[in-house]
Amino acid sequence: VLSTCNRMELYVVAVSWHRGVREVEEWLSKSSGVPLDELRPYLFLLRDRDATHHLLRVSGGLDSLVMGEGQILAQVKQVYKVGQNANGFGRQLNGLFKQAITAGKRVRSETSISTGSVSVSSAAVELAQLKLPTHSWADAKVCIIGAGKMSTLLVKHLLSKGCNQVTILNRSLPRAQALQEEFPDMQMDIRLMPDLMQCVESSDVVFAASGSEELLIHAEDIVNMPRRSDTVGGVRRFVDISVPRNIAPNINAEEHAGIVYNVDDLKEVVVANKEARAAAAAEAEVLLKEEQRSFEAWRDSLETVPTIKALRAKAESIRAAEFEKALSRLGEGMSKKQMKAVEELSKGIVNKLLHGPMTALRCDGTDPDAVGQTLANMEALERMFELSQLQAAAAPARK
């Protein structure tokens, strides 16, 4: 499960496409309590090559609200890390997420996609500054709700844009104080949540980045608050980057009460660097095609494993049968030492004969051309030794 500020994605390896989709839909409905009919309009489905390419684009920051933002790569890394101790995170998903991390790193190091606003937090700061009449933080009183990772990034970007004084609201004092220690150049007024409305009333721009699962500010909370100065346009501006939202969107309906922006509004900031980002995105797509090809080569290389096993099994079956025949012809006069020598001889001959075919079937998946040749070898060996029939006969037995 990959969860970000504006998406939740489930990556599944399934034997059956239709059954896999059905089970995921039923799980989502059961876990959320939302009926399937209501849930389906908000789902999107990708399979096979489209699904793997999508994850590579996500990891590279090409499918983010703010193109090139770095937080998504950290989230992909977290999925990979957690997956190492998860039973369902098998070889296919392990390889896919490992390739996605490589792709994300290449996109950021080999293109200019991460220049400018590259996170939700930095875009939120730019959006708020863009909306201020003077475009200057010197004229605005700023309040941040929350003291976690997103708030840390908000403080960092506000400081870089010339803002040197903020009010921090948090449920606990230690976390807010730790934030204050991290940014000694930023003057911080630390408050606890009971002071929320008092702080909102005295602020021009309020950023919400808390972990609360409930709305913290409603329209009725601010409708009677004094109007802000004309320097900031006479209204309070709320920028809500929390998931779920912390600020009621219906505040916008109340005249002069305030203006609420959320993550969807951050696209406006992206437009400023659209051409440069489009060029970088085109470069990134080329890199992602290379990474897609590498992943598919690795995955295809796994197809030879059943063939290797089948070829070894057939050779061993023939060797064992011929060994038994030889023993019966030689009679019972052989010692154990002689019998072992004959058996070792038969095994040695088989191993020598199999060395060439086995070498032709082994590939680490790093070179797509080599994988193509390996798969051609696999098909040839399956035809010559009739391994497909052997694998088909073994399948019912495994079940």
Summarize the helix and strand pattern as letters.
EEHHHHHHEHEHEHEHEEHHHHHH
What portion of residues belong to β-strands? 5-15%
Q: Total helix count?
A: 16
Helix amount = 55-70%
- What is the count of β-strands? 8
Which structural class is indicated by helix and strand composition?
alpha/beta
Ordered list of secondary-structure elements with their pairings:
Elements: E1 2-3, E2 8-9, H1 17-32, H2 36-39, H3 48-59, H4 71-83, H5 91-110, H6 120-131, E3 142-145, H7 149-160, E4 165-170, H8 173-182, E5 187-192, H9 196-201, E6 205-208, H10 219-222, E7 237-240, E8 259-262, H11 267-271, H12 274-301, H13 304-330, H14 336-361, H15 368-384, H16 387-398
What does this protein look like?
The chain has 399 residues and is α/β, with parallel strands linked by helices. Helices cover 56% and strands 8% of the residues. It is built from 16 helices and eight strands. It has helices at 17-32, 36-39, 48-59, 71-83, 91-110, 120-131, 149-160, 173-182, 196-201, 219-222, 267-271, 274-301, 304-330, 336-361, 368-384, 387-398; strands spanning 2-3, 8-9, 142-145, 165-170, 187-192, 205-208, 237-240, 259-262. Strands 5-4-3-6-7-8 form a six-stranded parallel β-sheet. Strands 1-2 form a two-stranded antiparallel ribbon. Strand 3 (142-145), helix 7 and strand 4 (165-170) form a beta-alpha-beta unit. Helix 3 packs across helix 12. The longest helix is centred in the last third of the chain and has 28 residues, at 274-301. The protein is elongated and about 110 Å long. The chain starts with a strand and ends with a helix.
